[in-house]
């Protein structure tokens, strides 16, 4: 029997991984921090390791390097799970010695079993460092608020982090569909039960972050909130709650941004965090497992500055959304488009020649096709008066320039997922 060592600090995530592996015929043990994981590797001598990068004490990257520095584990398969919205961590994992890196929010029991089967039973030599496509190092500059986006996706694509399709021979050997369905129902119910208390904790932490007197008081609360959301991503994706996993994954990336760059903490970003946590609660109440793949969304972007339009397009690409984008500079052209086509989401600048964004929003609200379409203002005007005018004109939300790409992505995902839950829901 092949042995798998799980190195993961969240008990809920560890439980669902371990249960799934044992159902698939593997022997599994777990460690909840980096140092104990390093010690156990030498004692347990596993056939493969499943590793989360966010660990207390010795972090996942340093743990990887320590394992690879030992000759006995040069070719040991190590599967790393991380956040697809933080590409620099993906690069670091490959450089440190990961065999495969997968998007934690998209990993399922089937994907994990197929990956292990490929690595342990295919008879092919295991490469210790990188697969065929390695995401390049991502310059930190494009993560800064308001900085121009790169001209492309930097050479790596969504499919680089997508688990491989099932080999036909392996798929036929799986246990019966009835047993699989029973197991899926069991772990999903366990997930919902376990995370009822998690939501209470998340809300309490959000209140603490928003009420913190200064950055020093806010920092430990942000870290704790980040770790809780990080654990939610892994368990939600693994048990089939793909919408919760996708939303929590982008929220995790936003929280990491706020921790790494405290100056990005603002009323806007904190409101986005709070709204995301409340929406996670809505998704729990709905409690149905669905595919993460949203129907293609039609999005209209209106801004007279080409750089601002490019920034919004790039932010949406970071959300891995399936969408058709139309960006225009002229408010008059935008109004005609709104009369002719129904959009799922509209982004508006305020200060534009001819017709300002507030007036354009009011006119769009008078159209037949987009009277209820969510409209987000993206503007340098963030004072109370401007926020009030955005609401009175029919706007759904407002993001201040310069904005964080991941914050805009988070808002877009929340709106589109909410539309899927209730297509008849009117704009806020």
Please give a quick description of this structure.
The protein has 428 residues and is of the alpha/beta class. Helices cover 50% and strands 11% of the residues.
Describe this structure in words.
There is one protein chain. By secondary structure, the chain is of the alpha/beta class. It has 3 domains: 3-174, Rossmann fold (3-Layer(aba) Sandwich), CATH 3.40.50.2300; 194-286, Four Helix Bundle (Hemerythrin (Met), subunit A); 297-404, Response regulator (Rossmann fold). It has 15 helices and 10 strands. The protein has helices at 11-23, 34-44, 60-68, 87-96, 109-121, 168-172, 177-211, 215-238, 242-260, 267-286, 306-318, 331-340, 357-364, 384-392, 405-421, and strands at 3-7, 27-31, 48-52, 78-82, 100-103, 297-302, 323-328, 345-348, 375-379, 397-400. Strand 1, helix 1 (11-23) and strand 2 (27-31) form a beta-alpha-beta unit. 43% of the residues are buried. The model is unreliable at 123-176 (pLDDT under 50).
Give the tally of β-strands: 10
Question: What amount of the residues lies in strands?
Answer: 5-15%
Structural class: alpha/beta
Number of helices: 15
Question: Topology, pairings included?
Answer:
Elements: E1 3-7, H1 11-23, E2 27-31, H2 34-44, E3 48-52, H3 60-68, E4 78-82, H4 87-96, E5 100-103, H5 109-121, H6 168-172, H7 177-211, H8 215-238, H9 242-260, H10 267-286, E6 297-302, H11 306-318, E7 323-328, H12 331-340, E8 345-348, H13 357-364, E9 375-379, H14 384-392, E10 397-400, H15 405-421
